Amino acid sequence: MGKFLDSVDAKALRFAVGFPLVLAGAFVLCAFLLRRELPEPLAVRWTDDGGAAFAPFGAYVGGGAAMILLFGWLVFYQAVPLGRPVLMRRIMMGAGLFLSLFIATALAAGLMGQAGLADARESHVDLTVLALGSGAAVSLGVIMGFVYKADQQWSADDDRALQAVIANELDPDLTRDSIRLWVHARSSVFIMIGIASLFPAALIAIAVPWLGVLLVAAAVFGAAFLCARVKADRAGLKVLLAGVVPVMDIPAGSISKASAAEVRAADFGGWGYRNHGETAAMLVSSGPAVVVSKTDGRRLAVSGGSQDSAARLAEVLTRVADRAHRDGGPAHQPGQADS
Fold first, then answer.
1. Strands 279-283 and 287-294: what pairing?
2. Strand pairing partners for 231?
3. How far apart are CA 178 and CA 230, in angstroms?
4. CATH class of 179-185+226-326
5. pLDDT (tens digit per residue) in 297-306
6. Structural domain spans, the chain
7. Chain mean position to CA 205
8. 259-281 average pLDDT score
9. What is the chain's mean pLDDT, rounded?
10. Residue closest to 28 by CA, chosen among 70, 68, 72
11. How far apart (Å, rounded) are the C-alpha atoms in residues 4 and 336?
12. What is the DSSP letter of 41?
């Protein structure tokens, strides 16, 4: 996946995927707004005498949306690979916009020509809609070809990457003093939660739909408490519940000791986040964890995933704490809350 993203223009790829989707969705929505004014079936081919071939409303709209997506994606994608000539990519980006809009215009002109009629055989394509839409499609396609910057641009991500490289060059130990890991309960626990919630929710939803949805939401909420993102670096230790909610933020200078150990969740109050007096814990299961002693006498326990990752986490925390104490870092840094 990384190699693919390195070989394409990410912004162009997002536009190439998103624009046909939005345009097809808009066409379908507008078609349904006109549904009551349209005959059944709809004409899909016309002669001088009127409609000559017909299809159901669903086939016309669904087939039209599929055409917008298929041809839009096909042409737009030619502008995405970075290895292609810049001029070709700009032309194909403009051509993709033109073709998508033109197909949507032709489909809309067919619908408008049949609005208000009882029999599609009496219909003709609305030439006004076709002319105006085609002109707009050509104009916007040409504009897109000129304004699309196919050259690779320096971005804020590049600035951050450059700063990271410079920092690593100046301080080779910086990478060693950082670890990121996800910890979560065993898969069997999530399966149990699913069985205990989804099956009853399906039965309850037959009688009270909102109660079934509420039960599923409660199960998802509970499962989120059994996942956490653990970050340790020279700033200290951070633990985010479900990868989003910060529950622990311990400055490196507040850590006196960290060690890997096998712990029982029951000894710290159970699974999930617990905070009782002088002890706090974020444990997703019993097993490998890191026990942290703080300079103020409090103790923390954090799940470490496997024995190896728990040992690496304890090693990083010990090293950054020693560095902070050696450099005279304060035990409590302003703006950071202990948990």
1. unpaired
2. 180, 238
3. 11
4. mainly beta
5. 888 888 888 8
6. 2-147, 179-185+226-326
7. 29
8. 84
9. 83
10. 68
11. 39
12. S
